[in-house]
Amino acid sequence: MAIKRVFIANRGEIALRIVRAAQALNIETVVAVSDVDRDSAAAALADRAVVLGPAAAAKSYLDPRLVVHAARETGCDGLHPGYGFLSERAILPRLCQEHGIAFVGPEADVIDALGDKLSARAIARAAGVPLVPGSECIASAADARREGERIGFPVLLKASAGGGGRGMVIANTADEAEAGFHKASAEAVAAFGDGTLFMERFVPEARHVEVQLMGDGAGNVVHFGERDCSVQRRYQKLIEEAPCTAMNDALRAQLQQSATALAASVKYRNAGTAEFLFDVMRQEFYFIEVNARIQVEHPVSEAISGFDLVQEQLRIAGGAPLSVKQEDVVLSGHAIECRINAEDTRRDFVPSPGRITRWEPPVGDHIRLDSHMSQGAMVPPFYDSMIGKLIVHGESRAQAIEMMSDALDNFRIEGVPTTVDLHRKIINHPDFKDNRFHTRWLEQVLLPQLQEKAA
Amino acid sequence: MAEPDITDSLATLISEFSRSGLAELSVRSGEFELYLSSVAGQSGKRRQSGASQGEAGSRAAAAPAAQLAASAPPASVPVATPADLPANARIVTAPNLGTFYRAPKPGAAPYIEVGQTIAEGDELCLIEVMKLFTAVRAEFSGRLHAVLTEDGTMVEAGQPLFALVDA
Fold it and tell me: CA-CA 20 to 30 A from A365: which of A347, A416, B21, B120?
């Protein structure tokens, strides 16, 4: 049954995004807020806002019982978890089901199965999705040599009891693998009291590539192309693009097919993303994990497909079939998204909450801004520091880069330091323009360059 | 948003109530208020203290009430403080969202009544979240001047529950 009133268990730009999508479908909206979010843009736009609890997320947005109680008592028949917070906690769909509320996301058991790393790898393997080539237990230096040759160098020797980089050795040749075995094993014994090792292919220059999926829960899955999210700092994405232009079309088709097969194999319901590591040198991709929710960067896929993913989420959760067939999904042009965070990039990206005293975003035909901010709005110190997502859609990557550069130049924010200036430097960097970067490029190349200039 | 006519739901509600075996049902939605009772001779919205065993299930009435709410437009957040409170009144607010109960269990007397004197640390009411009941205690002493929230309804974090004046 189509959802009549949806409860939005999130905050910030995504809460606002969900309210708008619901209103477009004539669904009533109730937004959950914490005490400090009473005056949020989502709360103002929604039919109703309810205050869950104090600012601390553990006592408001992160309490699944509180959230479902509020949804039930406000007469909601659907619940959208957004991203982060409770979005991938299986208890939320379980509580929703107990109380007759349609959860806008996958089934609880699917969240559990995909949330566990080993189980997710097993699902991927069974669906024929490539995993990072690796070994079983490495028992001797001879084993290390043989397995290294089989997997292909460079390889990473890892302590199976390990973590934090200890007992980890990179080997570029068979000789290094033999020598590395003794070193890694001794380190592992010293650190963990267990010298057991295993081996994985090491990808020195990887891109992060992911496929946007939508399933109906009956085994039908449609993809909306892939995104390249390789500009990262400490595993946090800063810029996302669609499509991935570092990959040829044949490989992109394989990637999309792998992701779709994986999701279909678990009869995936609603929106999800399959994440992959792309080995640029070898032109191979390996499965990382599935994010069982809508993602921050979904707008770049919406831009190139012209399809509203959040509206589709609400329709599917209401029991509707997929509204498009794969052949109806036509991808065109190139989209780029910059995450605007209230962070001081010159002080190790420290989150810098405060009041926005000036907010003048760029406007234009091919510019989209997803943000809950406005002049006078407060960035509270309790949650993540993202204050907006700036998205442009051009005919080509080069054009999109130009549009983004202009858009960033015309973005005036005062009151809090932001990442706008850093984005400008990334977007205009020759490596970015030439598409020559990888997931550690920002930390290894650009940030050190900027530090040198500043010194 | 079209305003659905609440009387359309009345007949269904009454027949569901009769079938449910519940003793009482109190429903409020915006301006609309309804009290149903299957206990002969009992009237008024408040449950009487020392009532019969038959009332044990009345707390389950929250479920049908929620269903009715689904057909009504969302209510606005209740007014924080009634205008007629004395200037020196101190307000006890809800620490989190939940269902507000004035009594420790269905049919029991409320923790506190208007006019009663309260010491710091006294239990004032319960807030229920998914069957988990948490007591709200007085953070200051005083005399209960007014109850600001309807028993058995959802309250939001920070919503005024009681007004206390100097004893």
Answer: A416
Rounded Cα–Cα distance for residues A54 and B95 (Å)? 8
> Helix/strand/coil (H, E, C) string of chain B?
CCCCCCHHHHHHHHHHHHHHCCCEEEEEECCEEEEEECCCCCCCCCCCCCCCHHHHHHHHHHHHHHHHHCCCCCCCCCCCCCCCCCCCCEEEECCCCEEEECCCCCCCCCCCCCCCEECCCCEEEEEEECCEEEEEECCCCEEEEEECCCCCCEECCCCEEEEEECC
Continuous segment of H or E residues that includes residue A259: helix A249-265
Q: Which residues contact A111 (CB under 8 A, 6 or more apart)?
A: A88, A89, A90, A93, A105, A292
Q: What stretch of H or E contains A334?
A: strand A334-341
Count residue pairs from A and B with Cβ separation < 8 A: 79
Residue among B69, B71, B98 whose CB faces A69 most closely:
B98
Question: What's the pLDDT tens digit per position in A320-342?
Answer: 999 999 999 999 999 999 999 99
User: How far is the alpha carbon of A75 from chain B, nearest alpha carbon, in Å?
Assistant: 4
Tokens of A221: 């899955």
Q: Helix, strand, or coil here: A329?
A: coil
Radius of gyration of chain A (CA): 23
Which tokens belong to A345? 């990039």
Question: Which of A72, A77, A95 is the best residue to mutate to test the B interface, defined by the most B CB atoms within 10 Å of its own CB?
Answer: A72
Phi, psi (deg, nearest 5) at residue B42: -90, 135
Residue from the list B128, B157, B159 with its beta carbon closest to the beta carbon of A54: B157
The H-assigned helical ranges of A272-396 are 298-305, 309-317
- SS3 state of residue A436: coil
**pLDDT, tens digit, 9 for 90 and up, residues A219-246:** 999 999 999 999 999 889 999 999 999 9
What chain B residue is nearest to A46 in terms of C-alpha separation? Answer: B74
| B118 within 8 A of B108, measured Cβ to Cβ | no
Sole residue written with tokens 């890694």? A184
Look up the pTM and report it. Answer: 0.83
Nearest-CA neighbor of A243 among A336, A370, A326? A336
d(CA A43, CA A59): 19
* pLDDT value for B49: 32
Q: Which of A34, A54, A69 sits opposite B130 (nearest CB)?
A: A69
DSSP secondary structure string for all residues of A203-257:
-SSEEEEEEEEEEESSS-EEEEEEEEEEEEETTEEEEEEES-TTS-HHHHHHHHH
Cross-chain residue pair A75–B66, CB shorter than 8 Å = yes
